[in-house]
Amino acid sequence: MNEPGLGNISIVLVNTSHPGNIGASARAMKNMGLSKLVLVRPKEFPSGVATGRAASAVDLLEQARVVDSLGAAIADSGLVIGASARSRRIPWPLLTPEQCARQALTEVTGNRVALVFGREDTGLSNEELRLCHYHVRIPANPGYSSLNLAAAVLVVCYELHKAALPEAGGEAAAAEREWDREMATSEDVERFYEHLERVLVAVDFHDPKNPRQLMHRIRRLFGRTRIDVMEMNILRGMLTHIENNLTDRD
Amino acid sequence: MNEPGLGNISIVLVNTSHPGNIGASARAMKNMGLSKLVLVRPKEFPSGVATGRAASAVDLLEQARVVDSLGAAIADSGLVIGASARSRRIPWPLLTPEQCARQALTEVTGNRVALVFGREDTGLSNEELRLCHYHVRIPANPGYSSLNLAAAVLVVCYELHKAALPEAGGEAAAAEREWDREMATSEDVERFYEHLERVLVAVDFHDPKNPRQLMHRIRRLFGRTRIDVMEMNILRGMLTHIENNLTDRD
Question: Which of A190, A244, A215 is nearest to B242 (CA)?
């Protein structure tokens, strides 16, 4: 039933206030051939309103995974793209919905992909946006650029569906970036950041009490690289060897 | 405020049952830079539900033209395109939303353009579809192709907005290149690799006599990131602090 590849792409909704938006998002997803919905601390779920708005996509609601944190939602994902309406203080690699679709379909063969959408009023926090490899922004009227949540989900899913159609050259796009290794999962990458932070504290480069955005900048640097599993092994190995060779101090 | 051309394109909703869909359509239109809404015999209008769902697009509802027949709605239009979910008995020139946007923008200079959407349950009648020059169909999951009315309006308006952008995708490409810092020079990057290699030798992670492609893999990892000058300072600072904290050995 689903287009090839789309089955490995999750839509993650963070802290949704209105259950109607959850239902409408499920419908938009199913219309466009997606099926995996993940809800991070929804305000009200399950909900009759969500079921009503989902129409014939109730199966997606029934199978939705409900989790406690964005970290848990994306733990097994090798590519995480977050929807962002505004430009932030720290710029981040930014995709159009079309580019987002190509990127997701290119990487979905070896990886799970998560597309993350924030709250109706405030979107994703800076903290949450930093957990993403890329941000996607929907081009809109600068005078009124705030899309309804389910509308944003629809646009992103619509571009995915278009890109996955055989005629769209979805296959050609897949050939664009073949990689010899799987990507590291978000969980692996988080453990690497923790390890790196320990080392940076040990060598007095980093003071968690006065962080000066150091770890944010490091996340942004490695986040846009997309680390594969072998590279992750190299980085972790480096850190372990460095730790083993540090002067003992108390 | 609106993109050039979009101001002459009307969205016509025929016999809408749910006022929420009228409000959501108005919001989708304004998000994408359209402003002219025409309602053919809506079941309930004006409506508090429509106003609520329109959010900051209430002005479009206030200025909406309410008429008695599709004929009256499209009387002044030189190009009429009707949304069609199913293939009909009478084949008709069929456009994708992208083609629909190009067609509309091509003709909008000398003409008023009307994009027509039917009822939530049964769409446009064959009679109404015959009043259209073209039909537009949104590509969707064959297993569940029935989009919510406002969702269909959004997809069509989104493609219009994309096609009307000065250079399609130009904005996004520009945003992508915006970065808050200069990029590090090749020379800086080479010095970083040399520094990193010295540290990796010192901690016994790297043996230049038996390199096992380590430095190649590290170059590939950092090479695809484009490191900026501030990040380069961070990386070099990390290495210096690590060196200063290594156990003395000979």
Answer: A244
Q: Is the pLDDT of residue B115 over 50?
A: yes
The rounded Cα A118 to chain-centroid distance in angstroms is 11
Query: Which residue segments constitute the domains of chain A, with CATH numbers given?
Result: 6-176 (3.40.1280.10), 186-244 (1.10.8.590)
- Chain pair A-B, CB pairs under 8 angstroms: 173
Q: Phi, psi (5° rounding) for residue B223?
A: -60, -35
The pTM for the full model equals 0.79
3-class state of residue A97 by DSSP: helix
CB A183 within 8 A of CB A79: yes
- What does pLDDT average to over chain B? 88
Q: How far is CA B117 from the centre of its chain?
A: 21
User: Distance (Å, rounded) from C-alpha A129 to C-alpha A233?
Assistant: 25
Q: What CA–CA distance (Å, rounded) separates A161 from A34? A: 8
State the residue for tokens 């995974």: A65
Token pair in block for residue B214: 């380590």
Q: What is the pLDDT of residue B9?
A: 96
3 state SS of B56: helix
The token pair at A9 is 């792409």
- pLDDT given for residue B2 in this prediction: 46
Cα–Cα distance between A98 and A3 in angstroms, integer? Answer: 17
Backbone phi, psi, residue B86, to 5°:
-110, 160
A155 touches chain B (CB under 8 A): yes
In order along chain A (250 residues), what is the average pLDDT of each group of 10 residues?
Answer: 74 98 98 97 97 97 97 93 77 90 89 95 91 93 95 98 75 47 88 95 91 86 86 94 82
Identify whether the C-beta of residue B91 lies closer than 8 Å to the C-beta of residue B129.
no
Degrees, nearest 5: CA angle B101-B105-B108: 135
Tokens encoding B77: 């239009």
Beta bridge partners of A37: A11
| B18 DSSP 8-state letter | -
Q: Is A184 on the interface with B (CB under 8 A)?
A: no
| Terminal Cα-to-Cα distance of chain B (whole angstroms) | 70
Contacts of B127 (CB under 8 A, 6+ apart): none
From the list A93, A154, A217, which residue is nearest B151 (CB)? A154
Quick check: B24 contacting A, CB < 8 Å? yes
Nearest to B158 by CA among B80, B100, B86, B111: B100
pLDDT band, residue B174 (cuts 50/70/90): very low
CA nearest to A74, candidates A9, A136, A16: A9
B176 in contact with chain A, both atoms CB, cutoff 8 A: yes
- Write out the H or E segment, with its range, that includes residue B82: strand B79-83
* DSSP tag of B250: -
Q: Return the amino acid letter for B17.
A: S
